[in-house]
Amino acid sequence: MSSGAAGTPAEIPVPLAHRVPDLGAMELLLAVARLGSLGRAARELGISQPAASGRLRALETQLGVALVRRSPSGSRLTDEGALVSVWARRVLEAAEAFDVGAQALRGRRDSRLRVAASMTVGEYLLPGWLIALHGRRPGTAVSLAAGNSAVVAQQVLAGEADLGFVEGLDVPSGLDSTVIGRDRLLVVTAPAHPWARRRVPLAAAELAATPLILRESGSGTRQVLDAALAPHAGPVPPLLELASTTAVKAATVSGAGPAVLSELAVAEELGTGRLTAVPLAPDLPLTRSLRAVWPAGHRPTGPARDLLSLTRG
């Protein structure tokens, strides 16, 4: 045990919160000074008169001085009460400044939205949602990080994004999610590829044995394909492994080989005839859910909540 001078125990300082009256009591004192009546002060503050009397007595006891002189004509501050009221006004002004500052911080937080999105969602769905969000919240500054689904999940878990969008089969531990849409994967080729003219649907075993142009491991597209072909020991090592949907499409359009891509990503190329969709057998379940994700137990608020609502429109 530590000790002070002459072997006496050191005094433990009393916390400031125990020495300074609470803000409600100081507000009451200033209201009594302004209105000249404890009853009117109580009504203004939305408390009963007995509660106001008790709060005032507690304040006087804490400070050790009489603050208010009561009479049939009303209540007036004592000399000591008048001095305390000057100090109390300064404390309340500081508290109000604190509150305004805290609200400003919340305002800056609410006007900034950090989004992480998988490549498919980021390229083909998110732009429309962000345009709609701008109409609803024109002052919101949005930052967007694009990556594969695994990277998006890591960013949300690390607190680097307020809301994420993924397209894999599952959601990592530590994240909550909701399904915002469905997507279908297609096997596509350039029109000159032999598969572009086939009439017999492509079975899972044949697809598993064929080198493909694929997205990298960790992408939602790759996760769905790997799971679908796992019973057939596939897919075999890829012909090309590329880190963006745009790169995969470009290689496929050039005739390098077949690829597996989101229907959302190849709609334009299919419409113009630059790519052809290969018919698939029923044993190829290439569908997936698109999900919004956020830290577990922390439901999106502010702009993140608004963006999430727009994905369901």
Overall description:
With 313 residues, the chain is of the alpha/beta class. Strand 1 and strand 2 form a beta hairpin. Strands 3, 4, 5, 6, 9, 10 and 11 form a seven-stranded mixed beta sheet that branches. The longest helix is centred in the first third of the chain and has 32 residues, at 79-110. Among the domains are: 5-108, Winged helix-like DNA-binding domain superfamily/Winged helix DNA-binding domain (Arc Repressor Mutant, subunit A); 182-288, 3-Layer(aba) Sandwich (D-Maltodextrin-Binding Protein, domain 2), CATH 3.40.190. Mean pLDDT is 89; it is low at 1-6. 45% of the residues lie in helices and 20% in strands. The protein contains 13 helices and eleven strands. Keywords: DNA-binding, Transcription, Transcription regulation. Residues 21-78 form the HTH lysR-type domain. Belongs to the LysR transcriptional regulatory family. This is LysR family transcriptional regulator. InterPro entries: LysR_HTH_N, LysR_subst-bd, WH-like_DNA-bd_sf, WH_DNA-bd_sf.
Features:
single chain, 313 residues, alpha/beta, Arc Repressor Mutant, subunit A, D-Maltodextrin-Binding Protein, domain 2, 13 helices
Tally of strands: 11
Low-confidence stretches: 1-6
pLDDT averaged residue by residue: 89
Largest sheet: 7 strands, mixed
Topology:
Layout: H1 16-19, H2 23-35, H3 38-45, H4 49-63, E1 68-71, E2 74-77, H5 79-110, E3 112-118, H6 119-124, H7 126-136, E4 141-147, H8 149-157, E5 163-166, E6 175-189, H9 204-208, E7 213-215, H10 220-229, E8 240-242, H11 245-253, E9 259-262, H12 263-272, E10 276-277, E11 287-295, H13 302-310
Parallel strand pairs: 3-4, 3-5, 7-8
Antiparallel strand pairs: 1-2, 5-11, 6-9, 6-10, 6-11
